[in-house]
## 1
Amino acid sequence: STSVRRSRTWFVQLLMLIGLILGDTLAANITMVELFRWHLRGDARLQAAFDALRVESWVAFLVVLNFCLASTFIANNLYSLRRGLSRIDESFRVVVALTLATFTALVANALLPQFGFESFPYNQTVLITIWAATVVLVIVVRAFLRTIISALRRRNYDIRRVLILGARAPGRQINNLMQRKPGLGYRVQGFLSDSETIGSLIDGVPVLGKPGALSRVVKVMHVDDVIIALSGRTPEEVLDIVSLAEDEAVEIQIYPDVFHLITNNGISNTEISGL
């Protein structure tokens, strides 16, 4: 049933999310601890400052650091499990998140004496080295985990069932992309079209009806995502079509060819592997 399938998908997504969080946390903490230990061997002043540090202060700094990491990664949507997000875009977000986390952790570290803890000792060389190494390691770990996630989706885990409105060039382009890249986890169930015969096949995908049948087809096909790729429609017509599915548990996405027809503060834009 739809509820069982969605609960399984939710469980798989939870495991993926936990994997990403653990990967980021371990990469950041292991890098910091190991590089700091390496710097201590060559810096007597830093070693002396660290030796004078109470265990409670060391633990307090680690707690603050990990809180800053989690907060900035969440703020930069690095745990949204977005499909088709480019590696370059994700890497840029990682750099921004780690930079913000480093800055906020330094501010919090300076405030630790106000709460009965010593500030954690560091110098500029330690700071830059750890930041740069953490950026590299987190990006590498995330690339590895994304590869695993893509492999799971190719094997039909964490799948999104897609219905495309529009069987002309924009709709076919979306369908072709999703067929070429099964690792995105999208499975096109069919098209809705006014221009094609119901029951005909387009690149192996059936035309299931007219756009007016959106709500019924969503229910029958257990659709998760509806992508509107219609051209030549007025804003009112597009909004009328969207309203047909407003009571269904689906996510509605609009291809850029018609995106400009809609003006709504609730809209955000994203990409699916370049589209």
Note: The chain has nine helices and six strands.
## 2
Amino acid sequence: WWNDTVFYEILVRSFMDSDGDGIGDLQGLTAKLDYLNDGNPATTTDLGITGIWLMPINNAPSYHGYDSLDYRSINPDYGTMADFEAFLAAAHARGIKVIIDYVMNHCSNEHPWFVAARQNSPTYRNWFRWAPTKPDETGPWGQGVWHWNQSGWYYGLFWSGMPDLNYDTPAVKTEMLDTAAWWLDAIGVDGFRLDAVLYIDEDPGLLQTTPATLQFWQDFNAHIKAVEPDALSVGEAWTASSTVVQYVSNDRLDLCFEFDLSYAILGAVNGGNAAGLGG
């Protein structure tokens, strides 16, 4: 169905404020659905979109939400789970599919899992990667990836506020796959936009596209398709197309963003020369 769908990306926080507190919310989004698609193909006053991608809606300490505090929650700034379910029903009634951002690579350093891990919880310590001394390792754009707190050095690709989950621990994979199934089955979303898919597993000297990362996405897609065969998985693999193709091969993800093409389009427009689109 996604091949015939026009998606509209929404950061709820900045879309429509229903209660005058200066923050967009789910009730505001629901109230504006007729602007996006009123469900009547004969009208010409709506945009006519048929899919919505919601940027992170989980509770999180940041404005953007890519540092989840609870993967089965709604950010209270946006409303309640009941508000989300009402929005979802209203969208579906208008023929609009809804996918949500699922940020599986990392969570917030304020997430209860990480709080327990830094307190040396035997249950959660290995849900993250730790080292007694700082490893000699940097990230793909030269950034520091090992961060200090009172219980040791921990790995976080993007910054210290987003520790990476450790998928070498089976309980982590089980919980995150079960959460995906819950959003599909119990709540009724139509799929997921998957953040930072390149970095689920890291090996010494290789941070992106490891064999375990590719296997993880194959397992993930099999899991969600068993729950909902029509669920969409779309990955953010921000790298060359020659690498991205691995993520949409062998029954891994359904789609990935095509960054090389986007750069070629921008280059053609800005330079007035379409030669770069020929590749």
Note: The two ends are 27 Å apart (CA to CA).
## 3
Amino acid sequence: MRVDILANDRASFIKPMAEGLARMMKDCGAEPRLHCDGIAHLMRPQSVNFSSLRSFAGSTGRLVSNRRHFSGFLDRLRGTDLIVIVSHLPSSFSPSLLPNIELLRRLMPDVPIVNYDLVYLPSLDSWSRAILKDEKTGLSEDDMKIFRRGKFGMERFDWYLMVSVGGYIPLSPRVHPMSLIGIDLDDGRLYPDQRGEFQVLVDFPQTRGKYPEFREVQLEAIRIAGVKYEQLEGSYTRDEMLAVYRRSSALLLAHSESFGLPICEAQACGCLVFTPNPHWPTAHWLGRDYTSKRDPSFSPNFIVYENDPQVLAERLKAAAASFDPDRVRATFLELQPELYYGDRTALAGFLEMVKSGEVHSRLHPAHRDVGREKAAS
């Protein structure tokens, strides 16, 4: 089975996800082909934008070039059995950001198109309610502006390959169109390299809402504890970023995460994870009963400090006194191996469904009601 994986080449989570998926696909007997320009081709407009005179002029000038490039890209996909688009919500469901998914479907009508993402949309609170139920949420206008040309629900893709399920909303007991395959991060670059030194890593600064206040608490706690620290600022290549994780001992989360790939990468490097709120990293809660309301349950690698600088300072000092990066890494691999090695059994099961025709190119309309069910009274 030939599988074409569409990704990008930016310094983000998409490329390592796609590379790990290609390794998993190969181990499961498929023939993966990774296209790091795939997302760019899905984004390039293939029609004229009439929203303004300026937009009309600009889109008209680029149209011939865009269509020529897309035609060449389509030729590269000929003969594929499956297309996997590695893209994170909410852009996965936006015709503004990825307008050519439906064009690709029309031009290759017999090929299933699936999404590989970090967290399953129906299990998230704000995004699920906004995208699937048209409810007002705490999301900002900037968050929602990507849907200026409308939005899709779960009917956009024929199937969903997921790294995780969030902890906010219990899933309905129906059969969901997704396979929970985890993520393969095992490329040989994630390992402890602290060299006996305890160093705290302060995550990238966040400007939204009250997140700057959380950072101030963290910096105050570091001052009280008197521990060495490093702050993430600016931009890093992936190699530079992984080197930072390898020398770090405690990652202080900067904001609430729908998933948070650095949480996995840091633990694989022997780094503890500190969060002010147990609901920030819900996708990393232990347990797999996703149809019931879940209470926070973490591995010993997670430390909650209640957004109190004194509490955080004491817990940083306690962690430094007993820090063992090899134990942190071993705990992560024992309790959540699917978030480092991936789950090849689940992926092989999905590929069998594609081979048998259970997952096919006309399956997506059947998912229209997924996540839109009314909550049980």
Note: The first strand starts at residue 2 and ends at 6.
